[in-house]
Amino acid sequence: MTQPPNRSVFVVDDDAAALDSLVMLLRSDGLNPSGFSSAQAFLDVLPPEARGCIVSDVRMPGMDGVELLKTLKRRHCLMPVILITGHADVTVAVQAMKAGAAEFVQKPYESDVLLGHVRAALEENDEAMDASSRRLRVLRRIDSLTARERQVLDLIMQGASNKAIASGLTISPRTVEIYRANVMSKMRAESLSELIRMTLASGVA
């Protein structure tokens, strides 16, 4: 299966031979790799909207693979990071997994195993990016609500009935129904359960 052009595999390794070998392996499998000789060189050109995954060596001069991973997390990068090492270092492996590495692979590795990890990481990123896009869409819908509509939504999320909302906001039950219908329309929710589910998923409730 050919890799969509907007999804890349970013490879970071200070060993030129290892970097070229891995880039060739990924390209031969239909993937879209880009190679970098240092973590900083990669970070300097990483576009915010990049999709895909990152494969990085652990032991590199300057910023190592674990610190690169931590830096990416601080930048809220959604791309999974696969770390590779030629050293059977349990401490580093634990640090990497605690920092959020998708996988920790030791050299020498089987090509099929690494490619499997990369494919899984790409699918994980697709899911994360799709979820992020859905959340942003919902947040934009919430932002479109008037102040009163937002109050009604907040009370709905608290489980308040129309009567309780009317009492709490000192308005008539009929007015609550109008606001509630506006909320459902602007949020593009077909049902109350869908409204609650999307609002919860947005993280604002």
Question: Summarize this, please?
Answer:
The protein has nine helices and five strands.
Describe the structure.
The protein folds into two domains: 7-133, 3-Layer(aba) Sandwich (Rossmann fold); 144-202, Arc Repressor Mutant, subunit A (Orthogonal Bundle). 57% of the residues lie in helices and 13% in strands. The chain is built from nine helices and five strands, in the order βαβαβαβαβααααα. The protein has a five-stranded parallel sheet with strand order 2-1-3-4-5, sandwiched between helices. The radius of gyration is 23 Å and the shape is elongated. The two termini are 40 Å apart. Residues 1-5 have low confidence and may be disordered.
List keywords for this structure.
205 residues; alpha/beta; Rossmann fold; Arc Repressor Mutant, subunit A; 2 domains; five-stranded parallel beta sheet; 9 helices; 5 strands; 57% helix; 13% strand; disordered N terminus
**Runs with pLDDT <50, length 5+?**
1-5
SSE series = EHEHEHEHEHHHHH
Q: Let me know the average pLDDT.
A: 90
Distance N terminus to C terminus?
40 Å
Number of strands: 5
Instruction: Tell me the strand order in the biggest sheet.
Output: 2-1-3-4-5
CATH architecture label name of the largest domain: 3-Layer(aba) Sandwich
If helices are DSSP runs of H or I spanning 4 or more residues, what is the number of helices? Answer: 9
What class do helices, strands and sheet pairing give?
A: alpha/beta
Q: Assign the CATH superfamily of the largest domain.
A: Response regulator
Name of the level-1 CATH class of the largest domain: Alpha Beta
Helix content: 55-70%
The value of Rg in angstroms is 23 Å
